[in-house]
Design brief:
Layout: H1 31-35, H2 37-43, H3 54-57, E1 62-68, E2 74-79, E3 85-90, E4 93-99, E5 105-109, E6 117-126, E7 133-135, E8 139-144, E9 154-158, E10 167-170, E11 181-187, E12 193-198, E13 204-209, E14 212-218, E15 224-229, E16 238-245, E17 251-259, E18 265-267, E19 270-274, H4 281-289, H5 295-301, E20 317-319
Antiparallel strand pairs: 1-2, 2-5, 3-4, 3-6, 6-7, 6-8, 8-9, 9-10, 11-12, 12-15, 13-14, 13-16, 16-17, 18-19, 19-20
Length: about 325
């Protein structure tokens, strides 16, 4: 299972630090459509199109949008083979089914709100031509907030390719302010550093670890960016810095975040973790369970102490569930 990603620590701040989101690759529906199933489905309606090429029929399904409203109602959109029958699964339980249109786009609006808690979503798509069912390479990790914590739900896309950076599809509203950000940082199996975040649309960025240049990146039209860089020449904690450049190459905006792997200890026979500067939920989960995606279990067990999973602070003591 894909399990690497950086959910920032507040002052230690992000360690989510801050991330790029994948929007729909085609046209996006208006904001009102996200909460209105009829408007959402209409926004993705497409005229009839010629039969697709074989390669299009064989493509695996993928996620583009996951949006959980304050009541737990979910709108999920993505891509699949044109005409494929698409099912969205919560674990092994179907929560929505729809047919992809002639462009391969689909939208599912769940019939019932999702209950608060942590879960993982996958997609299954059955081709109308071959009858073959394919499962998405990517997984979406969800942490659905209780109704009394409106706007606190979190959705993270975990790519099946270990050399691609995870992306936040929905972040708690408190962390949704615009501007330059570093949202995820992680080491891939190859040892390279994966980074992603947000910036002004089409902005040019320079990336650093301390004073060591890591490379450059360019935000897309929606302001999302990601980069794969060489491993920094440091075995300990380091500071990641992102500079957004003006047209003449000067620095317009800058963000910097500490980045350091956590350590886990036991206390009275029970696993607990004392947050240190530079730590984040994803790294704590990787250290405790071997899978970063299980950060949702830590978040769920410590909701009284974590108001926003993007913001955890040095000195906080978290319970680490056994499973």
């Amino acid at each position: 299972m894909r399990s690497t990603f950086w959910l920032a620590t507040g002052a230690a701040a992000l360690p989510l630090v801050v991330v790029a989101v994948l929007g729909l690759r085609g046209a996006s529906p208006p904001a009102s459509a996200i909460l209105d199933p009829r408007a959402t489905q209409a926004a993705y309606a497409a005229p009839a199109a010629p039969a697709p090429a074989r390669s299009a029929l064989d493509q695996p399904p993928s996620f583009d949008i996951v949006n959980i409203d304050p009541t737990g109602q979910a709108v999920i959109a993505g891509r699949a083979a044109p005409g494929a029958r698409v099912r969205v699964l919560d674990g092994d339980t179907p929560i929505g089914e729809v047919t992809a249109d002639a462009r391969g786009e689909w939208v599912v609006v769940t019939k019932a709100p999702l209950a608060p808690g942590e879960r993982q979503l996958v997609i299954e798509a059955t081709s109308r031509v071959t009858g073959v069912t394919r499962r998405s390479d990517d997984v979406v990790a969800l942490s659905v907030a209780p109704a009394d914590r409106k706007g606190a739900s979190l959705a993270v896309l975990l790519p099946g390719d270990a050399d691609q950076a995870p992306r936040i599809l929905q972040r708690p509203e408190a962390a949704a302010a615009g501007g330059l950000s570093l949202d995820t940082a992680e080491f891939a199996a190859s040892g390279r550093l994966l980074l992603s975040g947000r910036a002004e649309p089409n902005a040019r960025l320079k990336l650093y670890a301390g004073n060591q240049p890591l490379g450059t990146a360019t935000a897309d039209a929606a302001g999302k960016w990601s980069a794969i860089t060489p491993r920094p020449e440091s075995s300990g904690a380091l500071e990641l810095r992102i500079d957004q450049l003006t047209a003449d190459g000067s620095v317009a905006h800058r963000v910097a975040q500490a980045f350091a792997p956590p350590s886990v200890s036991t206390e009275g026979g029970r696993y607990r973790y004392l947050v240190k500067h530079g730590n984040n939920l994803w790294w704590i989960a990787r250290q405790a369970y071997g899978e970063g995606v299980r950060y949702t279990a830590i978040y769920g067990a410590n909701r009284d102490h974590i108001r926003d999973p993007n913001l955890i602070y040095p000195g906080q003591l978290f319970k680490l569930p056994k499973s």
